[in-house]
Specification:
Layout: H1 3-6, H2 18-23, H3 27-30, H4 32-48, H5 56-140, H6 149-160, H7 169-239, H8 252-256
C-alpha cells in the first residue's frame, strides 16, 4: 500500500488515536485534528506512566515505553518520505507535461503571431528607412561656404535618385527646390567672382603696361636731357677756350660781302 493510500483517514477520529496512527502513520501528516489528538494522547500516556527504577524489569519497561515513540517517529518519517517520493514523482510528471505544453503553446503562439510579427518588422524597417531618408534630405539642405556648384549639382542628382514615396515626397520636393535655388545662386556667385577676377587681371595688366610705358617715356626724357646736357657742356667747354688767333683782313670786296677769314683758323670773321 502506498503512502497516498495510507493518507486516507476516517470521517470521524478513532478512539484511541495512537493505535490507528501506529497502523497508519501517514494519517498524522495529512490530518491536523488527528495529529493534535495523537500528541494529546501521547502526552497523557506519558503523564499516566509510572516508571519503576528499582528493578531491572521496571527500567526495561521505561526503555521499552520510550522506544515505542521512536518507532512511531520512524514510521511517520518513512511514511512522509514515501508521500514526498510519490509527490515528487507526480511533480516531475507534471513538470514534464508543463514543459511540453509551454513549448507547444509557445510555438503555436509564434505561429499565430507570425503575420503580426512580420508586419511589425516591416514597419520597423520602414520607419528606419523614413528616418534615414528624412535625415538625408535635411542634411542635403545644409550649404557650406566652401560648397561649389559641382558639389551642389551632385547633391541634387543624389536626391533626385531617392525613390519616390509619399512618406517623404514633400520633403524631397522642397529639398530639390532649395538645392536648385542654391545651385543657381552659387553659379551666379562663381560667375561674378570669375568676372571680377578677370577684371582685376585686366586692370593689373593695364597697370603693368602703363608702368612700362611711363618708364619708357621717362627713360626717353632722361636720355634726351642727358644728351642735351652733354651737348651744352661741350659747347661751354668750347666757348671757354682762349682765343690765340687773329683775324686777317680780307679784301674790301670780300668784306663787303660781310665775310673774312681769321688767320690760323680757317673761320670767317663773323665766327671770330
Amino acid at each position: 500500500m502506498t503512502a497516498t493510500a495510507l493518507a486516507i483517514v476516517p470521517s470521524e477520529l478513532p478512539n484511541p488515536v495512537v493505535p490507528y496512527v501506529e497502523a497508519n502513520p501517514v494519517s498524522v501528516l495529512t490530518d491536523k485534528a488527528l495529529r493534535e489528538r495523537f500528541f494529546t494522547e501521547i502526552e497523557l500516556a506519558i503523564s499516566e506512566f509510572e516508571p519503576d527504577l528499582k528493578t531491572a524489569k521496571g527500567r526495561k519497561a521505561i526503555a521499552s515505553f520510550a522506544h515505542k515513540f521512536s518507532r512511531t517517529k520512524t514510521a511517520i518519517d518513512d511514511a512522509g518520505q514515501a508521500l514526498n517520493d510519490d509527490a515528487n514523482k507526480q511533480i516531475s510528471a507534471v513538470n514534464l507535461v508543463r514543459r511540453e505544453c509551454r513549448a507547444k503553446l509557445d510555438a503555436m503562439r509564434d505561429l499565430a503571431r507570425k503575420p503580426l510579427d512580420e508586419w511589425e518588422a516591416a514597419e520597423a524597417a520602414r520607419e528606419a528607412l523614413i528616418s534615414a531618408t528624412n535625415k538625408l534630405l535635411s542634411d542635403a539642405m545644409i550649404i557650406l561656404a566652401a560648397d561649389t556648384s559641382t558639389v551642389i549639382r551632385e547633391r541634387i542628382d543624389a536626391i533626385e535618385a531617392v525613390a519616390d514615396d509619399e512618406a517623404w515626397a514633400a520633403a524631397k520636393e522642397s529639398t530639390i527646390l532649395a538645392l536648385r535655388a542654391a545651385f543657381n545662386r552659387i553659379v551666379k556667385d562663381e560667375a561674378d567672382r570669375a568676372e571680377l577676377a578677370k577684371l582685376r587681371a585686366e586692370e593689373a595688366a593695364r597697370k603693368r603696361e602703363e608702368e612700362v610705358r611711363l618708364a619708357a617715356e621717362q627713360k626717353a626724357r632722361d636720355d634726351a636731357e642727358r644728351a642735351e646736357h652733354e651737348e651744352r657742356a661741350v659747347q661751354e667747354r668750347i666757348a671757354a677756350r682762349p682765343r690765340t688767333h687773329r683775324c686777317r683782313q680780307t679784301p674790301r670786296g670780300a668784306r663787303s660781302r660781310g665775310s673774312h677769314q681769321c688767320s690760323g683758323t680757317g673761320r670767317s670773321q663773323a665766327d671770330c
